[in-house]
Amino acid sequence: MRVVMAASECVPFAKTGGLADVVGALPRALQRLGLEVCVIMPAYGSVSSTGVPLRRTEWQLQVPISDRTATAGVWQSEMEGGIPVYLIEADQYFARAGLYGTSGGDYLDNAERFAFFSRAVVALLMQLGPVDVLHCHDWQTALAPVFLRTDVGRYPGLENVRTVFTIHNIGYQGVFWHFDWHLLNIDWCYFTPDWLEFYGKINFLKGGIVCADAITTVSPTYAEEIQTPELGYGLEGVLAARRAALAGILNGVDYSEWSPENDRYIVAGYSADDLRGKAACKADLQACVGLPVAPKVPLIGIISRLAAQKGFDLLSDIASRLLRKQLQVVVLGSGDASYQELFAALAEKHQKRLAVRVAFDNALAHKIEAGSDMFLMPSLYEPCGLNQIYSLRYGTIPIVRATGGLQDTITDVDAKTGAGTGFKFGDYTDEALLACIERALEAYRAPKLWQRLIQNAMGADFSWERSAQSYAELYRRIVKVR
């Protein structure tokens, strides 16, 4: 079976978030199952600075956009395992400093940029030869299933291509004003509530949901949550109508990158059988961020976008009370200016308790996973989440809100039996969060229980193999209905 993945980012070529990690890992797991896979993404200007080898192909794609035809070149590279990666070259759209925008906001022509990219994906399918499944990710590629469904006459030979559309975060939908409809080159009859129209605007993500043969999202719980008014962001009715085509498949993680046995960023390796290196990693982390080196003081790690969705509104409410406790906290991330300023001020006031680094720092992220005793993710919603899964492998006990992938990956601790892999709270309130942290701190003060929890956590397996198997079964199911 031949599968083509289309996405706006992919490790190691371009990354702003977890989408790139998924698209960089899932094809390799599918290949190990015997599938033939390749990836299509934009040729951003920043790709050349990554050092990955690129070669120009002979293909020149003719891509309709509005009332004209644009030409796109195609570069080819490979990811680990020899999987082909095709990069769509169109400097007028992709030779920019950022993928989607700048610090001042999104690029104003994003509707045109990603309508063009989705068209180019379909045009490239014509060159690649027989394809069984086109698997698209998030709103930036959502129009590709739309074009295959509504403009099939333009693409002879692609009638039997089946489409899968994965929603990584329904909060980002690609919504644009209706004056951009001309960019799509499809009939106005599709600008209706049954198709792409969304409260008078064009919704790219909705188009993918309506037109794909199968829809997935990145955890079973999130698949249910997005069908509710609270977390559906206006598309809960559309998703409920397509419930039979919707599946939640949990993301996996790449243990070759995130595992204390072989982590090149940490000061000492360790395993479930020999945890001595974890103490060295804790001391190294404390020293690196300027906290007192105190082996018995519980250390909580946070790696996150600093935003309300990630629970920073709750953290702001409890910060003063939390920092009066005998503990340390290290925060790595960037985001809303108000949270950056607040936590920087708190770190200045509580220098022995709190360290804050407003940055993206991959090496420090690895040190935090290895050196922390606990990892905090109090998200309002979390489609899947990866850091809580990384934390399990490092024996760093997660403290999470029971939502989305956090609910699906973490089993709540039972202090009486020693069962569980982390601490969960349900109500999205500051009191519920604080009570959950206090429960974790109490367990930390019971060494035998804590060692049991570390063993439980490090024994959990969320490798890509299980997730890839679910995707492979989904592909086979939709291909059979031809």
Structure description:
The protein has 16 helices and 20 strands. Helix content is 35%, strand content 20%. The chain has helices spanning 18-32, 91-94, 110-128, 143-150, 204-211, 220-225, 236-241, 276-289, 312-322, 337-349, 362-371, 387-393, 404-409, 430-444, 447-458, 464-479; strands at residues 2-6, 36-42, 55-65, 68-79, 83-89, 101-102, 105-106, 133-137, 162-167, 175-177, 197-198, 201-203, 214-217, 246-248, 299-303, 328-332, 354-357, 374-377, 397-401, 423-425. The chain starts with a strand and ends with a helix. Strands 3-4-5-2-1-8-9-13-14 form a nine-stranded mixed β-sheet, with helices on both faces. It has a six-stranded parallel β-sheet with strand order 17-16-15-18-19-20, with helices on both faces. Strands 10-12-11 form a three-stranded antiparallel β-sheet.
Task: Give the SSE layout.
Elements: E1 2-6, H1 18-32, E2 36-42, E3 55-65, E4 68-79, E5 83-89, H2 91-94, E6 101-102, E7 105-106, H3 110-128, E8 133-137, H4 143-150, E9 162-167, E10 175-177, E11 197-198, E12 201-203, H5 204-211, E13 214-217, H6 220-225, H7 236-241, E14 246-248, H8 276-289, E15 299-303, H9 312-322, E16 328-332, H10 337-349, E17 354-357, H11 362-371, E18 374-377, H12 387-393, E19 397-401, H13 404-409, E20 423-425, H14 430-444, H15 447-458, H16 464-479
Parallel strand pairs: 1-2, 1-8, 2-5, 8-9, 9-13, 13-14, 15-16, 15-18, 16-17, 18-19, 19-20
Antiparallel strand pairs: 3-4, 4-5, 6-7, 10-12, 11-12
Helix pairs in contact: 1-16, 3-4, 4-5, 8-11, 9-10, 9-14
